[in-house]
Design brief:
The chain is an alpha/beta fold and about 200 residues long. Helix content is about 35%, strand content about 10%. It has helices at about 10-15, 30-40, 55-70, 90-95, 100-110, 120-135, 155-165, and strands at about 1-5, 50, 75, 150, 180-185. It has a 5-stranded mixed sheet with strand order 3-2-4-1-5.
């Protein structure tokens, strides 16, 4: 059985290097083209379920994928990107230059310090892990219940893959996962995966 982890494609805010957490942004023309290509590449995979963040930049892809494959779609807020709080909508440079102690604490240790008015990486990992645990058989079962596509965001997916592949979600900066790409995970019981597959 396989879990297909899919990162949403490029948005206007991504292109302009803005922090984009729980707010949304339309796709760029590159993003639209990448989404069309991604849907074509998934056309033959034996999916039984599409699970998605409820944010539009992920849900739009998930809706189309579920419709094309004729499978159920479930949206779950726990697959959302990190909430960046007061940093939402700022460019990376603006956030770095904001200069407040709360902002600096987050840059120094985003694992345990929350973004001002937002989340810690620890919070994001726990909610995503709780969500994805729900599609895996309990201990003693036969593995994942079915092939499932999971459409989410860079932060949550990197955190979960760092936990699964490297044994520590805090090492998420070591995980490369570009927008509009897929990582296929054949596995039995979570969190021990059978192997580390090459992403698209």
């Amino acid at each position: 059985m396989t879990m297909w982890l899919i990162r949403h494609v490029e948005t206007v805010a991504n292109e302009q290097h803005h922090y984009l957490g729980w707010t949304d942004s339309p796709l760029t023309s590159r993003g639209q083209a990448a989404q069309t290509a991604l849907l074509s590449r998934l056309a033959q995979e034996p999916l039984a379920l599409v699970l998605s963040s409820d944010l539009q930049r992920a849900r739009g892809l998930a809706v189309e994928l579920a419709q094309r494959r004729g499978v159920p779609l479930v949206t779950d807020w726990r697959l959302r990107e990190m909430h960046f709080g007061a940093l939402e909508g700022l460019t990376y440079e603006e956030a770095v230059n904001s200069g407040g102690p709360a902002e600096q604490a987050w840059f120094d240790d985003m694992a345990e310090a929350p973004a001002p008015g937002g989340e810690r990486a620890a919070d994001v990992f726990r909610r995503v892990d709780d969500c994805l645990t729900g599609i895996v058989e309990p201990s003693g079962g036969a593995g994942v219940r079915r092939d499932v596509a999971v459409v989410s965001h860079g932060g949550p997916l990197r955190l979960w893959l760092a936990h699964a592949w490297l044994g520590d979600w805090r090492r998420h900066f070591e995980i490369e996962f570009e927008r509009g790409t897929v990582v296929a995970l054949p596995f039995c019981l979570r969190p021990e995966l059978d192997n580390r597959d090459t992403g698209w």
